[in-house]
Structure formats: structure tokens, C-alpha cells
Structure of 3',5'-cyclic adenosine monophosphate phosphodiesterase CpdA:
Amino acid sequence: MLIAQLTDTHIRIPGKLAYGVVDSSAYLERAVAWLRALPQRPDAVVVTGDLTDFDQLEEYARFRSIMEPLDLPVHVIPGNHDSSVGVREAFPQIVARTGGKPDGKVNYVVEELPLRIIMLDSSVPKKPHGELGPETLEWLDRQLMKSRRDTVVALHHPPFLTGIRHMDAQNLKDAAAFETVIARHAHVLGVWCGHVHRTIVTNFAGRPCRIAPSTAHAVSFALAKDAPASFHMEPPAVSLHLYEPGRVVSHTCFVSPYDGPYPFFDTSNRLMG
Ligand SMILES: [Fe+2]
């Protein structure tokens, strides 16, 4: 089973660029085209927040229409640029996913895949940092107790420090409480995040915890204490998570155009050279 993870697409309304520079819709269109050209069709797409830049209905509508050609189930959670209210309005199917509740946190479980995915809403209204809060953490604990199936947990804000100070200042505030919950459940194979727009991996409660790269701009790799908040147009990427029972293997795949493929071996099966 293959899951595509897209994150931090930061879609704006037509005619507007993210931060005055990034044509984020064109970048998402490229990522979608790249995924459609893959010989291995993913089973589903997970989007770990910051779908939009300004939480506007028109931005969500544009996101949905760019994603449509994928013709895959798309599971979304809000980031700090979105909101729980905005995501609920834009994706009415979330009401059913969240037990019929018309409002509140966008916490739900994707049960229909061989790998169970718990989507957590870490957004805090009008704030850049993330927080799950006791209610969401208790809900998560209950969901993890309900089933011993292999599970991954997805949320926007990473629960660890990356060394990029201006982003660390706005990470997940109740990471320690979150870690305590994850540590209780051996069937959690990993934690998937967004927010920092670049591939960063660490261990969290003894599990792999991975920040996925954005389909558009990357937060600059800058570890100096006084490094200004900035971004680079590094090659945009999508994540492909390959699941087999007991294991998730996560690939960072750069979105073309680039040269290749070139064969390693000639027609006589000799190494090219
Ligand atoms: Fe973002």
C-alpha cells in the first residue's frame, strides 16, 4: 500500500502569489501531474495542513479543483494558515468523519485502509504555534486503545525542535503530553507532520517522526541563533509512504522536471561506462 503525503501547499486566490513570490497553485499542479504520471498509483493522499495561505473559501476551492484530477481519497487536517472552521466548511465530508459533529477540532480516523491513519488537528485559532489540548489527547488515547492495528498519527505541527529557531518558536506546545500518549501504544509506527516545509526526521517516543517537504517553498536551512525567517525555492517534493505490516518506509520524491531515467546496464546487462 502506498500513501502520498502532500503538505503546506499554501494555495492563494488567482492572481496572488504566496509572500509575493510563490505561485503555489502552479507548484501543486506540478505535484499532482507528477503523482498522476507515477506507475504506482497511491491508495490515498494525506495533506498535513496549510492547504491555504489565508484560510479563504476561494483558496480551499482552488485547492480542491487542483487536486481533483488525482481521483484519489484526500484526507486533510488544518495547519496554522488554515482553521478548523475553514477546513470543515471546505470539506463537508469531515462532519461524518468526526462523528457527525458540525464544529470543533478536525480529529478523525481513516479506518478503511490497511494502515490506520489518525488525523489530528493541532491548529490554534489565529496563532502560528500548535497545541493538541487535553481533549484531543484523551480522544487520541481512546482511538489507540480501540484497535491494535498498525497506525500512523498525522498532525501539522512537529512535536520536536528542529534547530531552525523561528520555526521552533511555533511548534507543538504540548509535545511532552503527546509523546506520553504515543509511548503507551506500540502499534503506532510513526508520526507525520508538516509546518517546516522540509524533510526532517527524528525519533519521538521511540518511533520515526518525520516532517514532510512542501510542494512549494522550503523554510531555509539556517541554524544560527539570529538567522532571519526566510525561505528558499528548493526543489519541491512529495512524500510517498510505502506500508507493509509492521513497517512504513518513507520516500522523499522531488517533483520533476529533471533529467532521466538513464539505465545502469546496457542491453547485454553490462554496467554502462
Ligand atoms: Fe506552511
Notes: The longest strand covers residues 237-244. The mean pLDDT is 97. The longest helix spans residues 24-37.
